[in-house]
Design goal:
The protein contains 3 helices and 21 strands.
């Protein structure tokens, strides 16, 4: 279902008149964009099928960077757009030249990590007169790696996340979602045709507990395994969620960097693990952070929402552009972790290696079944 309090955009945008193509882009501050983008390519998301992509490829939907616009860029099929664009739909005859009310185009999206969806943004940037009249979004949850035919089978249950809703051209169209269940795939519908530049799906990762249990030891903080950033002291240059993205950082802004402190304090990030776990080893990576890496770091843990913080890695000197590895003296039980950096600067990744406790695994399995299992003992 949608939230009426979120701004809605309808109608054409003015034709491009030169200058900054984003100068008249319509957007808003949506209340869910601080959450993980479950459709992030870095997590393994993909657009696995579409019924039509005549003018622009479906894969463009999940590009991490904003859509670009080159007014002089044309190909043999027409204007080249940085998004997913279908051909113009037509009716069945000269007597009925218009599409029917039910005619629409669709794309199937595999989320990079399964999760509970809190909001969706369908951005029609640079689609000023060729955007869809309306959009709708459905979700489903299937195990394994289903094919497009599997997803389109008649017995698959799809849940409406965004009902058919008019949208605007050259606008970030945002929708709050209220569906307390785990989804693995989405079906994006545009009515009757047109183009969408980017798709973002914000929510909370809900990992497969059987997979994590089978792994045994894994990165407890990783987004793909259900770790999440709860809060951070500073997000000036880059988001704290970068520190738990897959893979090593590939450039400076792919990590977390704070502004320069002019007081005597320090910066920090607080994380929630997927469930109660035992941590045995830690990696703190400052890749690509050279003159701006954190000087020192310390790590603390908390077991439970109301537990006391306990330091498990004392304040330790960090080197620029270096992956630092620490083996703890023994397994440390925790549900939350905080890294403090001194005095400011940044880190690119934090990895916490360990395994779920028996109670944590049971709680995660209960959550996956739709029960309130808590953190587990």
């Amino acid at each position: 279902m949608t939230d009426a309090a979120i701004p809605r955009f309808t109608g054409d945008a003015s034709p491009y008149a030169g200058g900054d193509p984003y100068a008249d882009h319509r957007t808003a501050d949506f209340p869910f964009t601080h959450l993980v983008d479950l459709a992030d390519r870095r997590l393994g998301a993909g657009v696995i099928a579409a019924n039509d992509e005549f003018f622009a490829e479906r894969e463009n939907l999940l590009k991490p960077e904003p859509a670009v616009f080159d007014p002089e860029h044309f190909g043999h099929k027409g204007k080249i757009m940085d998004g997913w664009e279908t051909r113009r739909r037509r009716g069945v005859s000269a007597a009925e030249p218009h599409p029917t009310p039910d005619d629409h185009d669709w794309a199937l999206v595999r989320l990079g990590a399964p999760g509970v969806i809190r909001g969706v943004v369908l951005d029609t940037a640079h689609f000023r007169g060729n955007y869809p009249q309306a959009v709708s979004v459905e979700g489903t949850s299937l195990p394994g790696s289903p094919s497009p035919d599997d997803l389109l089978a008649p017995d698959v249950k799809w849940t409406v996340l965004v009902p058919r809703t008019p949208v605007g051209g050259h606008a970030a169209n945002g929708f709050a979602v209220d569906a307390e269940q785990r989804f693995t795939h989405l079906r994006i519908n545009q009515h009757p045709d047109g183009g969408i530049a980017r798709l973002r799906v914000y929510g909370e990762v809900a990992p497969d507990p059987a997979w994590l249990t089978a792994l045994g030891t894994f990165d407890l903080a990783a987004l793909e395994n259900g770790g999440q950033v709860e809060d951070a002291s500073d997000r000036f240059y880059s988001p704290a969620t970068n520190t738990v993205q897959p893979g090593r950082s590939r450039k400076m802004d792919d990590g977390w960097e704070t502004r320069r402190r002019r007081d005597r304090g320090n910066d920090w990030i607080r994380y929630r693990l997927a469930a109660r776990s035992e941590i045995r080893a830690v990696e703190i990576d400052t890749a690509y952070l050279k003159g701006n890496s954190a000087g020192w770091a310390a790590l603390s843990v908390r077991d439970g929402e109301d537990g006391d913080w306990s330091e498990v890695l004392p304040r330790t000197r960090l080197q620029p552009d270096t992956n630092h590895r620490f083996v703890l003296d023994g397994p440390v039980r925790a549900t939350h972790v905080r890294i403090d950096i001194f005095p400011d600067g940044g880190i690119s990744r934090l990895r916490l290696f360990g395994s779920l406790t028996e109670g944590g695994a049971d709680a995660l399995a209960a959550d996956a079944d739709g029960e309130d299992g808590g953190a587990g003992e």
